[in-house]
Give the backbone structure.
Amino acid sequence: MKKKSVVMLIAALGALPVAANAFPIASSGEGASVVVSGTGSILATYQGNSAAYSNDLYLMLDAAGDPGDDGIVGNDLFIFNNHASAVGSTVDLGSFPVGVELIFRLHVNDTGDDFFTGPAARNSDGHAHARVEADWAPNEALVSFEDLRGGPYDFNDLSFSFTNTRSSVPEPGALALLALGLVGVGLARHGRCKR
Ligand SMILES: [Ca+2]
Ligand SMILES: [Ca+2]
């Protein structure tokens, strides 16, 4: 083989993995929830996938159109399909009260599985299936899903970003404050009993 051909072959092989991962995957926030952080409209942007399966993304709503799981999938809001939606396309989800959790559901058309943002216990295999990376961009969180029951968990099957949302992962500082608050309540009660 000529030297030039070898160089071209190496260049082609080197280009393959780069092409397969040419979309952002959240690097942290496994098992975190998506929480509304601003009063403006929440704009979802499809960021890409490298999944073999066809996956639909939904925002879980109840009959009144409020965020939450009412056990009925028919009234959830369809947002993206990982193969049919164009990378970079956007969907305006509307606005919701600050502090409310938005639960996103990944429906895997090939297997019928549903996976959810938030704690591992929501999923049938007891494992977190989404990462929520806060501050991926200014005022924008990046969410990446894994579509295989039982893993491997590489979260490469659908990525999307949201404006006006944050990750719910409790910071160690927040947990310490919560503990202090509980101690405070205990002391206050104790103090009342003494009087
Ligand atoms: Ca519903
Ligand atoms: Ca995967």
